[in-house]
Amino acid sequence: MVRIAEVDIIVDKLRLQYEGLFSVKELYFSIDEWLEERNYDRREIKHVERVSPEGKYIEFEMMPWKKYTDYAKSEIKIRLIMSDIVEVEIEKDGSKVKLNKGKIKVVLDGLLTTDYENRWESKPMFYFIRTIFDKYFYKPFTVGYQNNVSGDVKELYTHLKAFLNLYRY
User: Fold this and answer.
1) Where are the beta strands (DSSP E) in 25-160?
2) What is the spatial distance between Cα 98 and Cα 114, in angstroms, rounded to a whole number?
3) pLDDT digit string (tens) for 66-119?
4) Quick one: how far is CA 28 from the chain centroid?
5) Distance (Å, rounded) from C-alpha 129 to C-alpha 133?
6) pLDDT higher than threshold 80 for residue 137
7) Could you report how far apart the first and last alpha carbons of the chain are, in Å?
8) Rounded to an integer, what distance in angstroms lies between the CA atom of residue 40 and that of residue 76?
9) Contact at 8 Å (CB) between 84 and 103?
10) Which of 74, 95, 142, 150 is least crowded, fewest Cβ atoms below 10 Å from its Cβ?
11) How far apart are CA 5 and CA 94, in angstroms?
12) ∠ at Cα 107 (102, 108), nearest 5°?
């Protein structure tokens, strides 16, 4: 029997849309750098690229995670859907720069996973004790973890929004 940890959705489908100039490579690098600064371990789930006459279509999904304790961890589900991506050359400060032009849709979810090692699920009595501990004793810690997850997702959203605004001319 497979036991599944308890997963709470803290931030559900925070969306960001952008259309214009940007760099796909720098966008990936910016996300990786942000995750590294906050001690998230990177986990890529899906990466699809298709080329059509209108431009390139890229679908990218990752689910980085950060362990708070042996009982709780944070996960951020990042989905990037980029469409109509074409390479363009613009002039900036007297020199030519290659960038991408297209549409981006970003969807962020923040999850708090508890008992991810399934230590409290092995016997009914342990499950009952865990429920009591979660409800009465561990509640302040859980609320703190939920605030951390929410804060991280909102900070990543702000980071991506600021990154994309860099390319407005």
Assistant:
1) 44-52, 55-62, 65-67, 72-92, 95-114
2) 45
3) 998 877 899 999 999 999 999 988 887 788 888 899 999 999 999 998 865 555
4) 12
5) 6
6) no
7) 56
8) 9
9) yes
10) 95
11) 55
12) 140
CA–CA gap between residue 82 and residue 51 (Å, rounded)? 12
Q: How far apart are CA 12 and CA 7, in angstroms?
A: 12
Q: What per-residue confidence (pLDDT) applies to 166?
A: 72
Place of tokens 């092995």: 122
Residues 6+ apart with CB under 8 A from 140: none
Structure tokens at 161: 């929004």
Helix axes 24-37, 139-165, angle to 10 degrees: 150
116-121 long-range Cβ contacts below 8 angstroms, 24+ apart: 116/5, 116/71, 116/72, 116/73, 117/5, 117/70, 117/71, 118/3, 118/4, 118/5, 119/70, 119/71, 121/3
Structure tokens at 123: 């016997």
